[in-house]
């Protein structure tokens, strides 16, 4: 009869008449045993014992979404602008550099983690997995993570937050991070190594953040703006450690260079 010729049965799953199993795109289900006969390929990778959501493919919306692989859904017609974005990966903004925005579904989280992991491995392969890499260009080619002269480099795209060198690491803003920025923030790492973290936070990081947020340099335009900011003694010494020469500093012993305002 017609029901035997139609391979799509319970919940639209394809029925394999030869084996008597249902195929759910990523694995087979045996209705007699009440068990899946294939291991969940994503099971446990995020610490979630459930792995796949077994009963909510395409987030229960098969009208505008499809799940052609059994691992993640995507919009049938992205041009319609309907529904949630695809969980099949991809970064958001900045060419995919820095933090990734994705769906909160379990499949989306797993896919995101896999993408990030492979991207980090690719980043490290650029520098030959050498933590003492000294090539700034290779660091700037990375997407998430790298090393520069012993310091871990982490890219970020946090709104309204600049680059920073603290706790022995460099946090580079993906929108403004340049070779000069990398070298300058690495210079801050050297200040921290010499002073120790508590003293560094007190006499370098704190005045640097304060002046960055409130300093009168913000009322000017480059090159005066840059000169005023990097002439501050804590910034100028970081430049010196990092090998940066801006050629427009104020006289070193100017009183204004020693106060964070």
UniProtKB/TrEMBL annotation:
Under the heading Gene3D superfamilies, the entry gives: RHS repeat-associated core
Using the record, list the residue span of the signal peptide; answer none if the entry has no such feature: none
Q: Which PANTHER family match?
A: PTHR32305, TRNA NUCLEASE WAPA
Record-given protein name:
Wall-associated protein
Source organism per entry reads Haloplasma contractile SSD-17B
């Amino acid at each position: 009869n017609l029901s035997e010729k139609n391979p799509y049965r319970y919940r639209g799953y394809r029925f394999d008449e030869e084996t008597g199993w249902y195929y759910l795109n990523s694995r087979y289900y045996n209705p007699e045993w009440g068990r899946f006969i294939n291991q969940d390929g994503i099971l446990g990778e995020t610490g979630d014992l459930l792995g796949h959501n077994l009963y909510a493919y395409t987030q229960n919306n098969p009208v505008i979404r499809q799940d052609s692989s059994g691992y993640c859904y995507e919009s049938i017609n992205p041009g319609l602008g309907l529904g949630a974005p695809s969980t099949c990966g991809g970064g958001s903004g900045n060419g995919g550099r820095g933090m990734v925005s994705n769906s909160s579904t379990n499949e989306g989280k797993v896919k995101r983690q896999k993408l990030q992991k492979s991207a980090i491995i690719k980043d490290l392969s650029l520098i030959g997995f050498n933590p003492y890499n000294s090539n700034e260009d290779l660091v700037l080619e990375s997407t998430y993570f790298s090393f520069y002269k012993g310091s871990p480099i982490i890219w970020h795209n946090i709104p309204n937050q600049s680059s920073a060198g603290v706790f022995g690491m460099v946090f580079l803003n993906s929108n403004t991070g340049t070779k000069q920025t990398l070298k300058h923030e690495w210079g801050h790492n050297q200040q921290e190594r010499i002073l120790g973290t508590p003293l560094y936070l007190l006499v370098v990081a704190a005045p640097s953040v304060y002046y960055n947020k409130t300093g009168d340099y913000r009322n000017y335009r480059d090159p005066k703006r840059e000169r005023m900011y990097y002439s501050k003694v804590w910034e100028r010494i970081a430049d010196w450690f990092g090998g940066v020469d801006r050629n427009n500093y104020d006289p070193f012993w100017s009183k204004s260079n020693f106060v964070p305002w």
